[in-house]
Task: inverse folding
């Protein structure tokens, strides 16, 4: 960037950031369409989440519109089922070798159940993305192009600093786990707030795609700490989702097993056949997995309570916000400019 060029305003900086993120979503959608890239759905989810975070945070300057934001949110939600099933499937496969022989039929049944659910989720996600994303992308680029003619007095650095400060405050409030009965819901809110804060900070880290070459002091370390917190909170959320899937799947497993035993009995099956069928009872395995998931959730809850409100992390984010308010705008704008 030419140092003599007039300073860009927050609108132009945020617009360039949003355009870059739109390109990342587009690339991931193209890979997902081909159907051969196992990481495409994950990358699409992450890119879309970053894009939505940018549009939400800088909405007063980008003016994406509520209708477009709702449609992007609905598109993001279509990928949840496949992702949840995939995470659950990985966990079941990890647990399978540790189970007793009488518990393994239930784990294998659940693995097959989750594989089918994942396949359905992938098909639905690909269909929705193929039909919806091109129209949403065209509309979004149109809205962002309209912003090229608008200006404002605020610099990107000053606006981003204020946003980071407000998001740090929101994360601090979300991390106060006052109600034990609502612990999982509060942890989920904290996870969302942590992601939003991290996505705001990422463009101001060195070595990030499109980031500031020198970086804002403390930004990279804060992003790393937020990623660690996100993993911790995400593990708790994944365990909760797994328990919900077990609640849904167990009656189906019991019914399928019962029908099989009855069919053997009514079909004049032998005692040997009935005995072998009893060895395939899925309930012991499903109960063992439920106990393991519940124990894992209790461990994650205890760890989260032990960490408290993560005061050091919140203070670090506030420190980055304070530095941004006095940061030279020209290098800050390089964080969202890929074409200069």
Result:
């Amino acid at each position: 960037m030419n140092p003599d060029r007039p300073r860009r305003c927050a609108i132009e900086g945020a617009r360039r950031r949003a355009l870059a993120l739109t390109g990342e979503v587009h690339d991931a959608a193209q890979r997902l369409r081909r159907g051969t890239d196992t990481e495409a759905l994950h990358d699409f989810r992450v890119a879309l989440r970053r894009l939505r975070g940018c549009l939400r945070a800088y909405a007063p300057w980008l003016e994406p519109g509520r209708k477009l934001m709702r449609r992007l949110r609905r598109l993001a939600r279509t990928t949840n089922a496949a992702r949840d099933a995939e995470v659950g499937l990985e966990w079941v496969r990890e647990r399978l070798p540790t189970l007793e022989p009488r518990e393994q039929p239930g784990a294998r049944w659940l693995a097959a159940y989750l594989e089918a659910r994942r396949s359905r989720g992938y098909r639905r996600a690909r269909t929705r993305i193929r039909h919806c994303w091109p129209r949403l992308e065209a509309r979004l680029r149109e809205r962002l192009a309209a912003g090229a003619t608008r200006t404002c007095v605020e610099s990107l650095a000053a606006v981003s600093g204020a946003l980071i400060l407000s998001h740090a405050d929101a994360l601090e409030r979300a991390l106060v786990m006052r109600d034990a009965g609502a612990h999982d819901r509060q942890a989920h809110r904290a996870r969302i707030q942590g992601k939003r804060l991290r996505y705001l900070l990422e463009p101001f880290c060195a070595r990030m795609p499109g980031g500031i070459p020198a970086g804002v002091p403390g930004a990279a370390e804060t992003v790393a700490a937020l990623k660690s917190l996100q993993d911790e909170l995400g593990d708790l959320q994944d365990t909760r989702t797994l328990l919900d899937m077990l609640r849904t799947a167990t009656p189906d497993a019991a019914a399928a097993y019962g029908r099989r035993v009855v069919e053997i009995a009514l079909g004049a099956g032998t005692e040997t056949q009935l005995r072998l069928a009893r060895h395939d009872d899925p309930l012991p395995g499903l109960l063992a997995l439920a106990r393991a998931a519940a124990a894992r959730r209790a461990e994650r809850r205890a760890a989260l309570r032990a960490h408290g409100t993560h005061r050091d992390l919140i203070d670090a984010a506030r420190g980055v916000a304070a530095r941004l308010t006095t940061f030279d705008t020209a290098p800050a704008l390089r964080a969202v400019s890929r074409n200069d």
